[in-house]
Amino acid sequence: MKNKRYLFLILSLTIFACNDFPFKSCTKEFRYIGITFVDKVGQPRAVKNFKVINKRTAEQIFSSSHGALKGLYIVIDDSSVEKVRSSGDELMVSALDSVNNTTKSVTVKVKGGRGACHIEKISGPEQVELE
After folding, report:
1. pTM across the whole model
2. N or C, which terminus of the chain has less Cβ within 10 Å?
3. What are the φ and ψ backbone dihedral angles of 15, each rounded to 5 degrees?
Protein backbone atom coordinates (compact mmCIF):
# COMPACT_ATOMS: atom_id res chain seq x y z
CA MET A 1 0.00 0.00 0.00
CA LYS A 2 2.88 2.37 0.79
CA ASN A 3 4.41 1.72 -2.62
CA LYS A 4 1.17 2.77 -4.32
CA ARG A 5 1.13 6.01 -2.36
CA TYR A 6 4.73 6.79 -3.29
CA LEU A 7 4.04 5.99 -6.91
CA PHE A 8 0.97 8.24 -6.88
CA LEU A 9 2.99 11.03 -5.25
CA ILE A 10 5.80 10.76 -7.80
CA LEU A 11 3.38 10.73 -10.72
CA SER A 12 1.50 13.73 -9.33
CA LEU A 13 4.67 15.74 -8.88
CA THR A 14 5.82 14.83 -12.37
CA ILE A 15 2.57 16.00 -13.92
CA PHE A 16 2.47 19.29 -11.99
CA ALA A 17 6.15 20.02 -12.66
CA CYS A 18 5.73 19.63 -16.40
CA ASN A 19 5.64 22.86 -18.42
CA ASP A 20 3.06 21.33 -20.72
CA PHE A 21 0.48 20.77 -18.00
CA PRO A 22 -2.82 20.91 -19.91
CA PHE A 23 -4.76 22.84 -17.27
CA LYS A 24 -2.50 25.88 -17.15
CA SER A 25 -4.42 29.10 -16.64
CA CYS A 26 -3.51 31.79 -19.17
CA THR A 27 -4.78 35.32 -19.60
CA LYS A 28 -6.63 36.30 -22.76
CA GLU A 29 -4.32 39.19 -23.54
CA PHE A 30 -2.23 39.06 -26.71
CA ARG A 31 1.38 40.10 -26.10
CA TYR A 32 4.06 41.20 -28.49
CA ILE A 33 7.66 42.39 -28.36
CA GLY A 34 8.31 45.45 -30.46
CA ILE A 35 11.30 47.45 -31.52
CA THR A 36 11.41 51.08 -32.65
CA PHE A 37 13.83 52.43 -35.23
CA VAL A 38 14.74 56.09 -34.69
CA ASP A 39 17.05 58.69 -36.21
CA LYS A 40 19.82 60.49 -34.29
CA VAL A 41 17.40 62.94 -32.69
CA GLY A 42 15.03 60.17 -31.55
CA GLN A 43 12.34 60.57 -34.20
CA PRO A 44 10.78 57.31 -35.47
CA ARG A 45 11.96 56.25 -38.91
CA ALA A 46 10.47 53.77 -41.34
CA VAL A 47 12.70 50.94 -42.51
CA LYS A 48 12.65 48.47 -45.38
CA ASN A 49 13.16 44.71 -45.43
CA PHE A 50 12.40 44.23 -41.73
CA LYS A 51 13.32 40.64 -40.90
CA VAL A 52 13.49 38.46 -37.77
CA ILE A 53 15.50 35.21 -37.80
CA ASN A 54 15.74 32.68 -34.96
CA LYS A 55 19.51 32.12 -34.66
CA ARG A 56 19.10 28.58 -33.34
CA THR A 57 16.84 27.31 -36.13
CA ALA A 58 17.63 29.82 -38.90
CA GLU A 59 13.84 30.10 -39.33
CA GLN A 60 12.31 33.46 -40.18
CA ILE A 61 9.67 34.64 -37.69
CA PHE A 62 6.63 36.31 -39.18
CA SER A 63 4.42 38.35 -36.89
CA SER A 64 0.66 38.21 -37.25
CA SER A 65 0.48 41.90 -36.34
CA HIS A 66 2.20 45.08 -37.44
CA GLY A 67 3.23 48.19 -35.58
CA ALA A 68 0.57 50.87 -35.52
CA LEU A 69 3.11 53.68 -35.24
CA LYS A 70 5.78 54.85 -37.65
CA GLY A 71 9.10 53.23 -36.79
CA LEU A 72 7.55 50.54 -34.55
CA TYR A 73 7.94 46.96 -35.74
CA ILE A 74 6.79 43.73 -34.12
CA VAL A 75 9.68 41.33 -33.46
CA ILE A 76 7.51 38.46 -32.24
CA ASP A 77 4.06 38.00 -30.76
CA ASP A 78 2.02 35.29 -29.08
CA SER A 79 1.15 33.72 -32.44
CA SER A 80 4.78 32.50 -32.56
CA VAL A 81 5.19 31.50 -28.91
CA GLU A 82 5.91 27.86 -29.85
CA LYS A 83 8.73 28.83 -32.23
CA VAL A 84 11.07 29.69 -29.36
CA ARG A 85 12.28 27.61 -26.42
CA SER A 86 11.24 28.07 -22.82
CA SER A 87 14.92 28.58 -21.95
CA GLY A 88 15.14 31.37 -24.53
CA ASP A 89 16.25 31.90 -28.10
CA GLU A 90 18.17 34.73 -29.71
CA LEU A 91 16.40 36.47 -32.56
CA MET A 92 18.40 38.44 -35.11
CA VAL A 93 16.42 41.56 -36.04
CA SER A 94 17.58 43.38 -39.15
CA ALA A 95 16.27 46.19 -41.30
CA LEU A 96 17.41 48.41 -44.14
CA ASP A 97 17.51 52.10 -43.27
CA SER A 98 15.18 53.83 -45.74
CA VAL A 99 17.28 57.02 -45.76
CA ASN A 100 20.90 55.91 -46.21
CA ASN A 101 20.39 52.29 -47.40
CA THR A 102 22.48 50.64 -44.68
CA THR A 103 21.43 47.50 -42.85
CA LYS A 104 21.21 47.59 -39.07
CA SER A 105 21.04 44.36 -37.03
CA VAL A 106 20.48 43.72 -33.32
CA THR A 107 19.83 40.63 -31.19
CA VAL A 108 16.76 40.24 -29.00
CA LYS A 109 16.50 37.25 -26.65
CA VAL A 110 13.00 35.95 -25.94
CA LYS A 111 11.41 32.92 -24.34
CA GLY A 112 8.17 31.09 -24.92
CA GLY A 113 7.76 27.45 -25.74
CA ARG A 114 4.98 24.94 -26.09
CA GLY A 115 3.76 25.30 -22.51
CA ALA A 116 4.05 29.09 -22.32
CA CYS A 117 1.03 31.35 -22.30
CA HIS A 118 2.85 34.38 -23.65
CA ILE A 119 6.07 35.45 -25.29
CA GLU A 120 8.55 37.14 -22.89
CA LYS A 121 11.57 39.32 -23.57
CA ILE A 122 14.78 38.36 -21.77
CA SER A 123 17.15 40.96 -23.21
CA GLY A 124 17.76 43.27 -26.13
CA PRO A 125 17.07 46.85 -27.12
CA GLU A 126 13.64 48.44 -27.34
CA GLN A 127 14.96 51.15 -29.62
CA VAL A 128 17.56 51.12 -32.40
CA GLU A 129 19.24 54.32 -33.54
CA LEU A 130 19.88 54.58 -37.25
CA GLU A 131 22.61 56.78 -38.68
Report:
1. 0.78
2. N
3. -65, -45
The CA distance from 65 to 99, in Å, is 24
Residue pair 104/70 in contact by the 8 Å Cβ criterion:
no
* Residue 61 one-letter amino acid: I
Half-sphere exposure of 67 (CA within 13 A, CB side): 18
Encode pLDDT of 21-75 as tens digits: 555 678 889 999 999 999 999 999 989 999 999 999 999 998 866 666 788 999 9
Closest to 106 (Cα-Cα) out of 84, 77, 73, 79: 73
Task: Give dist(CA 131, CA 120) in Å, integer.
Answer: 29
